[in-house]
Hints:
By secondary structure, this protein is mostly helical. The chain folds into two domains: 4-75, no CATH class; 81-164, Winged helix-like DNA-binding domain superfamily/Winged helix DNA-binding domain (Arc Repressor Mutant, subunit A, Orthogonal Bundle), CATH 1.10.10.10. It is 67% helix and 2% strand. It has helices at residues 4-25, 30-51, 57-75, 98-108, 113-124, 129-136, 140-158, 171-174, 178-185; strands at 81-82, 162-163. A two-stranded parallel ribbon has the order 1-2. The longest helix is centred in the first third of the chain and has 22 residues, at 4-25. The protein starts with a helix and ends with a helix.
Amino acid sequence: MLREDDLILAYRETIRPLYAYVSRRVGGERGLAEDLVQETWMRALNAWARQGIPDNPLAWLQRVAHNIVVSHYRRVRPQPMDAAALDLSDDRFSPSTPDAAAVVGWGMARLRRSHAEVLEDFYFEGKSVSEIAAARSLSERAVEGRLRRARAKLRRKLDRILKPLPAERSREEQGGTQDARETRAR
């Protein structure tokens, strides 16, 4: 049986780190983060009423929240954005805005779990290559290779929704050559 005191204690101990976890994944979009955290807690209440509070409630909540965030990004197609704003090859890139987080989250929801997890650790948890390597019992070189491959796969997924830079647009999209535009204008 689920005791109210235990539930209140679990809530107080986990709500802030859970909200921070979800908020990073949605680029700080407050309303969305609140909705996803609420959905996570609703699932916890249903499951915990039957199974009891797990030994590590925060880990349980984060796994459920992760699945809810992935499901959200599988359902919602983000607004296209400029490809230049998402330089995934730059180690300093961070999907810290709601638009960037939505695009990256959308792409990651379409990757294999192993690729998505290494990108999540790097982009959303802010872990260094050495921290990821230590946590996964891998060499730093192996993690660098996994990050490189995962970024390439993510980039291919994102190419579907990223707008090309103006210089990259085809002549047809730009209305033909400058001469043709001037001729039409006359």
